[in-house]
Automatic annotation (TrEMBL):
<dbReference type="InterPro" id="IPR001611">
    <property type="entry name" value="Leu-rich_rpt"/>
</dbReference>
<keyword id="KW-0472">Membrane</keyword>
<dbReference type="InterPro" id="IPR003591">
    <property type="entry name" value="Leu-rich_rpt_typical-subtyp"/>
</dbReference>
<dbReference type="Pfam" id="PF00560">
    <property type="entry name" value="LRR_1"/>
</dbReference>
<feature type="domain" description="Disease resistance R13L4/SHOC-2-like LRR">
    <location>
        <begin position="249"/>
        <end position="360"/>
    </location>
</feature>
<keyword id="KW-0732">Signal</keyword>
<keyword id="KW-0433">Leucine-rich repeat</keyword>
<feature type="signal peptide">
    <location>
        <begin position="1"/>
        <end position="22"/>
    </location>
</feature>
<keyword id="KW-0677">Repeat</keyword>
<dbReference type="InterPro" id="IPR050994">
    <property type="entry name" value="At_inactive_RLKs"/>
</dbReference>
<dbReference type="InterPro" id="IPR032675">
    <property type="entry name" value="LRR_dom_sf"/>
</dbReference>
<protein>
    <recommendedName>
        <fullName>Disease resistance R13L4/SHOC-2-like LRR domain-containing protein</fullName>
    </recommendedName>
</protein>
<dbReference type="InterPro" id="IPR055414">
    <property type="entry name" value="LRR_R13L4/SHOC2-like"/>
</dbReference>
<dbReference type="Pfam" id="PF23598">
    <property type="entry name" value="LRR_14"/>
</dbReference>
Length: 614
């Protein structure tokens, strides 16, 4: 068939024509949406209004020939997106630009940008009221500024807005019952000073996916949710003054992925209906007046990664069904008056990174937890008994292990010293015995170790980590020398005490014999307690520097032999000496004694110095 003859066009030509027509129609529709009549000349470039707008804000002109990431000043990030041959602005994004004292006025040149789709000025201290007068803006993000005024300004914003972010400003007032937006997908008003109740119609908004009203002063009850409901996926109501019960109708929000109601005054039981929200990934109800039991059905929420039911009045056991939540990363059930044992099913929670069961009434042996990704394990202040499971040695990501105030017993596993990421180890107030593993010297990141109030014997291991700030050993059965705490390399002539950066060292009632030698360089020392020891006081103390900390050194209640430093040289000493129940042959220091000008002997920054004799 000849090209010019009648009949159907060749298939390939039809496709080409269709594509061209489709592009042409899209361009016409785009122009029409932006207010450009088809076939008319395009309006002037946006470059001058943009330059003028930046000048209004006290910023340098962006100097962009096309879409760019512009650098305006140190710490300030800027992104400008153009469209249509680089003539018109599609979006302006500014972040951390220090706009204190600047505001967007009602006649601002930014309002002349008739094709602007997105304006974002975040964390910049922008002042004044929320700007209105935009014609085509679909996204308005003014997070983290100093905007003031009444939230009723929402009614004056463009109806076509899809995303509104006004969080972390200083807005007041009540949220309007009726909002004019037909396409709104995201509304974030958190961290302001909004009052009043939550409009029920927000839950029925046809396209709203994210609603954040957290950390305001909202009061009243969570409104009952009636059908139809919108596609709400994230609901943030935490940190308000909400009262009453969690409505069972909340289960109608069946697309919820995040439900945060923590830190309100909600009461009643945790609704069983929450178990039907199968898309939930985060459920946070902590810090309310809710009571138990924990619904067994929560075990059906197999997508949960975060479950926080801490600081409640649950007064119930932990349901075994929670062991089915195999996607859990964070589980916090602390301070909720839980009873019974940890379910054996918790061994299935292999993705757990943070587990907190602190301050409950839990008992029994600690189960062998299979949690190789665990970073934080807070199990203190319960009634757990038996030995410390070696399963903790397999948790090589573990940073903090808290088991204090339990009834755990036996010797500490040597392998615990190979969990080399540990920074905090709280084992005080248990029934542990035996020697402290020498492998603890391998814990290079250790900052805090509390071993007091146990039955440890033998000698205290050398802990030479430069990161160590708190170490407690009192109320044990230790004997022998106080070991080196090599926390400062600047005191090479003092092999016994090198406490650079140490905040607190407690050795009271822990040792039986031997000497306390030279104290070395006590930089940043905050508190030393060596009470209850049969020791020699150090004869000399080298130059110290507490860097402004209110330090305290106590040596009271000892049976010390030998002498203490005969001079204390410090310009910051608040209390020179406190004497009482002194033993030995020496005479107590005069309470009015003033330190001499001897720079060789000092306790710099010590505000209380308690010794037994000189």
């Amino acid at each position: 068939m000849a090209f010019g003859s009648p009949g159907p066009l060749p298939l390939r030509l039809c496709v080409c024509v269709g594509v061209v027509l489709g592009i042409f129609n899209d361009r016409l529709e785009h122009d029409h949406f932006r207010g450009i009549p088809p076939g008319r000349p395009h309006p002037p470039s946006d470059r001058k209004p943009v330059d003028d707008f930046f000048e209004e804000l006290g910023l340098a002109r962006p100097n962009c020939e096309s879409s760019c990431d512009c650098s305006l000043r140190a710490g300030c990030t800027c992104k400008i997106v153009f469209w249509r041959d680089q003539r018109f602005i599609d979006s302006i994004h500014l972040k951390r630009c220090n706009l204190t004292g600047r505001r967007i006025h009602s006649n601002s040149t930014v309002l002349q940008l008739k094709f602007l789709q997105s304006l974002s000025i975040r964390g910049s201290g922008l002042e004044g009221s929320v700007p209105t007068g935009f014609s085509t803006v679909a996204e308005l993000d003014l997070f983290g500024n100093e905007l003031t005024g009444d939230i009723s300004v929402l009614k004056d914003l463009p109806r076509g807005l899809k995303r509104i972010v006004l969080s972390s400003n200083r807005l007041v007032g009540t949220i309007p019952e009726h909002l004019p937006f037909n396409h709104l997908k995201e509304l974030r008003l958190a961290n302001n000073a909004l009052t009043g109740g939550i409009p029920a119609k927000l839950f029925a908004a046809a396209r709203l996916e994210i609603l954040s009203l957290a950390n305001n002063k909202l009061s009243g009850a969570i409104p009952d949710i009636s059908s139809p409901v919108g596609p709400l996926g994230e609901l943030y109501l935490e940190g308000n003054q909400l009262l009453g019960e969690i409505p069972s109708s909340i289960a109608k929000l069946n697309e919820l992925r995040v439900l945060r109601l923590e830190h309100n005054a909600l009461e009643g039981k945790i609704p069983e209906e929450l178990s039907s929200l199968l898309s939930l990934k985060q459920l946070r109800l902590n810090g309310n007046k809710l009571r138990g039991p924990i619904p067994e059905g929560l075990g059906k929420l197999r997508n949960l990664t975060v479950l926080q039911l801490n600081d409640l009045a649950l007064d119930c056991p932990i349901p075994e069904s929670l062991g089915s939540l195999t996607e859990l990363i964070v589980l916090d059930l602390s301070n909720s008056n839980l009873k019974g044992a940890i379910p054996a099913q918790f061994a299935q929670l292999t993705k757990m990174e943070s587990l907190s069961l602190m301050n409950n009434d839990l008992w029994g042996r600690l189960p062998p937890l299979n949690m190789p990704e665990l970073r934080v394990a807070l199990l203190g202040r319960n009634h757990f008994s038996g030995p410390l499971p070696t399963a903790f040695c397999e948790m090589q990501q573990l940073l903090s292990l808290s088991l204090h105030w339990n009834n755990l017993n036996g010797a500490l596993p040597h392998c615990l010293g190979h969990v080399t990421n540990l920074t905090d180890l709280f084992l005080a107030h248990n029934e542990f015995d035996g020697e402290v593993p020498t492998s603890f010297s391998n814990l290079d990141q250790l900052e805090v170790i509390t071993l007091h109030s146990n039955h440890f014997g033998g000698t205290i291991p050398e802990l030479t980590q430069s990161s160590l700030t708190i170490a407690t050993f009192h109320d044990n059965d230790f004997a022998g020398n106080i070991p080196a705490f090599n926390l400062s390399a600047s005191c090479s002539n003092s092999p016994w005490y090198r406490l650079h950066g140490m905040d607190c060292l407690m050795l009271e009632a822990a040792m039986e014999r031997e000497d306390v030698r030279d104290c070395g360089e006590l930089q940043s020392i905050f508190k030393i307690e060596i009470s209850g020891l049969l020791q020699q006081c150090p004869k000399t103390c080298n130059t110290c520097n507490v860097n402004g900390l209110q330090a305290k050194a106590t040596l009271h209640g000892n049976r010390l032999a030998g002498s203490i430093p005969r001079s204390i040289n410090s310009s910051r000493i608040q209390t020179t000496a406190l004497m009482g129940n002194l033993l030995g042959d020496g005479e107590p220091l005069d309470a009015n004694w003033l330190p001499p000008e001897d720079p060789r002997l000092c306790w710099d920054g010590v505000d209380v110095f308690c010794c037994c004799f000189v």
